[in-house]
Design brief:
Largest interface: A-B, 44 and 42 residues
Order of helices and strands of chain A: HHHHHHHHHHHH
CATH class of chain A: Mainly Alpha
Helix content of chain A: over 70%
Number of domains of chain B: 1
Strand content of chain B: under 5%
Number of domains of chain A: 1
Oligomer: heterodimer
Shape of chain A: globular
Number of helices of chain A: 12
Helix content of chain B: over 70%
Number of strands of chain B: 0
Number of strands of chain A: 0
Structural class of chain A: mainly alpha
CATH topology of chain A: ABC transporter involved in vitamin B12 uptake, BtuC
Shape of chain B: globular
CATH class of chain B: Mainly Alpha
Strand content of chain A: under 5%
CATH architecture of chain B: Orthogonal Bundle
Order of helices and strands of chain B: HHHHHHHHHHHHH
Radius of gyration of chain B: 20 Å
Largest sheet of chain B: none
Distance between the termini of chain B: 24 Å
CATH architecture of chain A: Orthogonal Bundle
Chain lengths: 308, 337
């Protein structure tokens, strides 16, 4: 068993798979992280990823370019994000319940729209997805599609934005101490809403990766809890983009490993045990990190101007 | 205003969803008429709606009691499945007990299984401050895989071909039907009794008061000397038990065995139902019948005209969101400045 694991971990295809599995998680985790740094929990992520996956795929299926599909997925994510922002930021509703509402709405709307646009199909129609960037010439990365590169570039970009720019400072302030931010002349409501919309756009792109790069078709259950895993990964990453990347890769490595062990072990254990591992790991990560979690101080606290 | 909120929300939702129906290329009025007909147009339609409402009342109650104490149990789906599984497992034990004792044992097993599944997240919440929303959501996936594993293994029905299904519960433990040529079963009565019981517990007992106090302001409750952690854990046990019982009732009243598509999201619909009912156990019954009517009506509508049955899920999800907005407007006055 131990030798098996070493063989697997030392192989190039394993790490190619790890980066591929990590990509949607990186987008999703960065999206959740951004929303939460501004003080808003976004449980809409699961539905937003479904909508991103569906709209991006539909656009490409109907003749749009692949990058147009990505942009449309981002817009769809932003749209659902705006809904969540209006509910939680403008109307100060429960962030838990509103997020779940957005998820149920996004998921069911995608299923409905899929059936309305393609009433007759029995097997999911396919598109021509993103190709690996063979021209890049960097090992591991040249087996990935441009969306993976985009995910990897987004990490330092978001870290820079959050930690080194006035806009990032405003986001962090409204997430830590909205009263003080208001005192500095920052419009808390506007900053929070913009951040939630932007974060949700990232989640939408994460969904689009599934249909435009990882697979070439849309399936109803394709997101399959990845959104919830991203929410757990953000806690694991202590709300830092760099650690979020690390967490996503670590998680993807476990996921890729369980897939290979499942094939290698010749069904000694029921396959469901292996499939449970990612979810169990996420819970474990939450438990381990929760003790020293440095939550954004105003997370899940709605802000009403002038209220003490 | 408080009472008008759900009606306004549902009306608004139906208007919005009519755009989606129109997009499918059918006349909106006709489609909604078909939906209403399918939900309540005949004795049979009505009986189907009530059959569907039975597990929904229980999951709605499960969510309502938990949310009242601000314990966000999103795991009713998983709790329902483990409850159903436990019920089938216990019902197949050959114990020297009369049927009614076996029946009670089966219900208790289902309730214990559901409660145990929620106990973990509740303890993680009270001891380690782990957000219960994410843990209960993730446990849903684990629970379903666990059920799938048992349906492939020890609890597989050897006679079933193709799709995995569990062994059946013995016929003498099935819930009797309430009417000829319909599927309404006495589980409905159990659900209604429980709704009344949950209301009484919440309204007239010390425990109910503690649940509400902890939900309204946990710090104040602690200052008043309430054992906040214990209240949260007890609430979790009650909530999980109700969801587990939903699985038992569904399996003993309708299906007879467990399959992986036994619940089309009853646990998640429970959240919508609890919110539509504003967490009131009696109103949960009405909300559950409404949601069941939408689900059953949409099924029959999509068989008649070209509107995909997923419209039901969209309507249910959109009513949740409209309801959230409606309650805010009922409580606050909007002032533009």
């Amino acid at each position: 068993m131990g030798a098996d694991i070493l063989d697997i971990v030392a192989s190039v295809p394993f790490w190619v798979a790890v980066l591929r599995i990590a990509t949607p998680l990186v987008f999703g985790t960065l999206g959740v992280l951004l929303c939460e740094r501004a003080g808003v929990l976004n449980l809409g992520i699961e539905g937003i990823m479904v909508m991103g996956a569906f709209t991006g795929w539909l656009a490409v299926y109907q003749g749009a370019g692949l990058w147009t599909g990505v942009v449309i997925a981002a817009l769809a994510g932003a749209g659902l994000g705006l809904m969540h922002a209006i509910l939680t930021v403008a109307l100060s509703l429960s962030q838990h319940v509103s997020g779940l509402g957005v998820t149920l709405f996004g998921t069911s709307l995608a299923s409905y729209a899929y059936r309305v646009t393609l009433p007759q199909v029995t097997t999911p129609p396919t598109i021509e997805p993103f190709k690996p960037m063979a021209w890049l010439g960097i090992p591991l990365l040249d087996a990935q599609t441009p969306l993976t590169l985009l995910a990897l570039v987004s990490v330092p970009a978001l870290a820079y934005l959050l930690n080194r720019t006035p806009a990032g400072l405003a986001v962090r302030m409204v997430g830590e101490n909205p009263g003080a931010a208001e005192g500095q002349g920052i419009d808390v409501i506007a900053v929070r809403m913009t951040t939630v919309v932007a974060g949700s756009a990232l989640m939408g792109v994460g969904g689009a990766f599934l249909t435009l790069s990882a697979f070439n078709a849309f399936f109803f259950n394709m997101v399959n809890g990845r959104g919830w895993i991203c929410v757990a990964l953000v806690v694991f990453a202590s709300w830092r983009p760099g650690k979020a990347l690390g967490g996503a890769i670590l998680f993807a490595a476990f996921d890729a490993l369980q897939l290979r062990l499942q094939q290698a072990s010749g069904a000694k254990l029921p396959y469901q045990i292996y499939l449970m591992l990612p979810y169990a790991l996420s819970i474990l990560a939450l438990v381990i990190m929760a003790r020293r979690a440095a939550y954004p101080q105003a997370l899940m606290k709605p802000y009403r101007k002038g209220e003490r | 205003m408080q009472i008008a909120a759900p009606f306004a929300a549902v009306a608004f939702t139906l208007v919005v969803c009519s755009l989606l129906v129109a997009w499918a290329g059918v006349p909106v009025g006709g489609a909604y008429w078909k939906l209403l007909e399918g939900a309540a147009g005949s004795g049979f339609a009505l009986s189907e709606t009530l059959t569907r409402a039975t597990p929904l009342i229980l999951t709605g109650l499960a969510v309502a009691v938990a949310f009242r104490a601000k314990l966000y149990n999103i795991g009713a789906e998983g709790q329902l499945y483990v409850g159903a599984l436990a019920a089938v497992a216990v019902s197949n034990l050959s114990l020297p007990l009369p049927p009614f004792a076996m029946f009670a044992l089966m219900m208790l097993a289902a309730m214990a299984a559901g409660a145990l599944l929620l106990l973990g997240p509740a303890l993680l919440k009270t001891r380690f401050h782990v957000d219960e929303v994410v843990t209960t959501l993730l446990l849903n996936f684990i629970a379903l895989l666990f059920v799938s594993m048992l349906l492939d293994g020890p609890m597989k029905d050897p006679g079933a071909l193709g799709w995995p299904q569990s062994v059946a519960i013995p016929p003498e433990l099935e819930l009797p039907r309430l009417a000829e040529r319909s599927r309404v079963h006495s589980g409905l009565i159990i659900a209604l009794v429980l709704a009344a019981l949950v209301w009484i517990v919440g309204r007239f007992t010390a425990f109910g008061f503690e649940m509400r106090a902890v939900g309204a302001n946990a710090r104040a409750a602690a200052f008043a000397g309430m054992p906040v952690r214990a209240v949260v854990v007890k609430t979790a046990l009650l909530s999980g038990a109700l969801a587990g019982l939903a699985g038992c009732i569904e399996v003993a009243g309708r299906a007879g065995y467990v399959t992986l598509d036994m619940s089309p999201g009853y646990g998640y619909s429970g959240i919508v139902i609890a919110m539509l009912a504003q967490l009131n156990p009696i109103a949960v019954v009405a909300a559950a019948v409404f949601v069941a009517g939408i689900l059953v009506g949409a099924d029959s509508m999509s068989r008649a005209i070209a509107v995909p049955t997923y419209i039901a899920d969209v309507i249910v999800a959109a009513s949740l969101i409209s309801m959230l907005v409606a309650t805010t407007f009922a409580r606050y006055r909007v002032r533009w400045r």
